[in-house]
Amino acid sequence: METMPSSPLSLIIPVLNEAATITTTLRGLAPLRQGGTEVIVVDGGSRDGTPELARPHCQEVIDAPGGRARQMNRGAEAACGEILLFLHADTHLPDSADHHIRQALSRERCWGRFDIRLEGNSRLLPMVARAMNLRSRLTGIATGDQALFMTRAAFEAVGGFPDQPLMEDIAISRRLGRLSPPACLHSRVTSSGRRWDSQGPWRTIWLMWRLRWRYWRGAPPETLAREYRHVR
Questions:
Q1: Could you report the per-residue pLDDT of 131-173, keeping only the tens digit for each?
Q2: Could you give phi then psi for residue 200, rounded to 5 degrees?
Q3: What CATH number was assigned to the domain covering residues 9-195?
Q4: Strand locations in 17-109, DSSP E?
Q5: Helix (H/G/I), strand (E/B), else coil: 92
Q6: At 117, which helix (H) or strand (E)?
Q7: Total-model pTM
Q8: Distance between CA 12 and CA 169 in Å, rounded?
Q9: Which residues 6+ apart lie within 8 Å of 29 measured at CB?
Q10: Residue 43's Cα: distance from chain center in Å?
């Protein structure tokens, strides 16, 4: 694989009613934008003014049908970069993230993710983050919270994110894993632990593991998504 020291990078953020977090997230990306990174926000039907808050801090805000996978695919379609980075609205990248990504993609890898740190009130969050990072290294499966990145060629080779309402990160990791192992970066993104704080850490851990187990066993993503929304 050729090195990618100067390949253009596009950062895609799917959002839905993220008025409380989007401005802080985008302001934190200002150094990347100044360095040439394209930032695209893809809105899935927000009703809280998220698109209006986002516009001053990114290159483009576009609309897409609801659903994270559809939003990310739409953002990739509109993006100009040869490297695609998908970031959740409540996740913050480490310093020099673009440099880390380009280096990772010059080592016989076409995709990867960051380690994660969870920020919140629960004392269990460091343990949860360590478990997520270890599981990802052992299985080669990444979660969306870990800021998935990949070459455009790899994204197109696997057909983008599958059109499903949940577990799209697991599904695309499986497909990308057929092209190369993931680059598992030790640099950490910082993601909100609001899910664990609001629902309780043990309850959330049990829910996520149960949903993942059922997905591995072949349960339809649509069924799991309905259960996930009900619990939330």
A1: 999 999 999 999 999 999 999 999 999 999 999 999 999 999 9
A2: 95, 135
A3: 3.90.550.10
A4: 38-43, 60-63, 83-86, 91-92
A5: strand
A6: strand 111-119
A7: 0.91
A8: 14
A9: 11, 37, 39, 57, 58, 93
A10: 15
Question: What number of residues does the chain have?
Answer: 232
Q: Of 110, 111, 114, 148, which Cα lies nearest the Cα of 133?
A: 114
The distance between the two most distant Cα atoms of the chain, rounded to a whole number of Å, is: 46
CA atoms within 13 A on the CB side of 125: 19
Rounded to whole angstroms, the Cα distance separating 84 from 125 reads 28
Pick the closest to residue 228 from 170, 166, 162 (CA basis): 166
CA distances from 64 to 61, 67, 104, 147 (A): 10, 8, 30, 20
Paired tokens of 62: 């576009």
69-80 mean pLDDT: 98
